[in-house]
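Handoff note, outgoing to incoming analyst
You'll be picking up this chain. Sequence as last confirmed:
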Amino acid sequence: MGVVSMKGGDGEHSYANNSEAQKSITSDAKPEVMKSVNEMIVKMDFPGCIKVADLGCSSGENTFLVMSEIVNTIITTYQQNGQNLPEIDCCLNDLPENDFNTTFKLIPSFHEKLKMNVKGNCYVSGCPGSFYTRLFPSKSLHFVHSSFCLHWLSKVPDGLEENKKNVYLRSPCPPNLYESYWNQFKKDFSMFLRMRAEETMPSGRMALTLVGRKTLDPLSKECFKDWSLVSDSLLDLVSEGVVKESDLESFNLPYYSPDESEVKEVIENEGSFEIKNFETIFGLLFSYKTGHSEVKDDDDDVDHSRRFEVVKTRANMTRSIIEPMLVAHFGEAIIDRLFDKYIYHACQRYDTLRNKPTVNFFVSLTRK
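Most recent structure output, in case you need it:
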């Protein structure tokens, strides 16, 4: 299994150019993130230096869109209360394989978007490593942000030998497969919270956004639209002799989309953080930008040619997320053909998929 890093660079299939959906959901969560930042500052009585971490920053501009809002909220809060501006330390974290270079090239434009000229007060650094381990000194963080990361597990769960023709859970499948995924998520998310509890100052805050599921049934078809399309596309390549059946049978995604009760259960059982706010944010499975407008899957006048563009946009987004994992396991030669198959299957199922929302959770936490 390859490392869970998004596709780097700024090419057609890069994460930097195929993360509009993530940007949209992050934008929806923005008011609550800003509220959390403001409350943290007041509670901590306007510290002279504030350390902010974005965990799982990936590559591209999304991390700086979040950081600029956080930094500007800090500036505004201090100004409104007649306080001298603090020094702000912005730490961007992802796995060592992440394309940090594409991200760091955007630092000058990040500084330009900040209110006033705070360039001398705002510092940006990279912190490579898994957020399932310790990353920062004890009690050094004031605010932690993480978006679209915590549904990725530290490893493929054990006990998936029976999951031979799917890359993730799929109905029907034995309940023990769900248990394997749920137990791995429980273990990983608990570890994430434990590590952050050691690194975060008392009354420090965390704002987390992750993919979830609405239904309590983890095997509902609602839970794995994208991944079933990937599984079916790989099965096509197996039947054509392009992919070995044994290679498909040994490939599973280190991914889990929890329901609300599961997220809350892990937070409450770990015990270091208090839930201040928990919201569900719905997205769209299919959408794409054309000029200055956005065509979404609930637009009734989407004709066949634009339908293809909508599906291709979704295929590119999925590819930008899992291509490194696929290449590590199957090799690079199959990727174009695989996503041609993905587009075919998505077009075939378009009418059943188009009105299915994606489910995302926003969680605001405070360190006890």
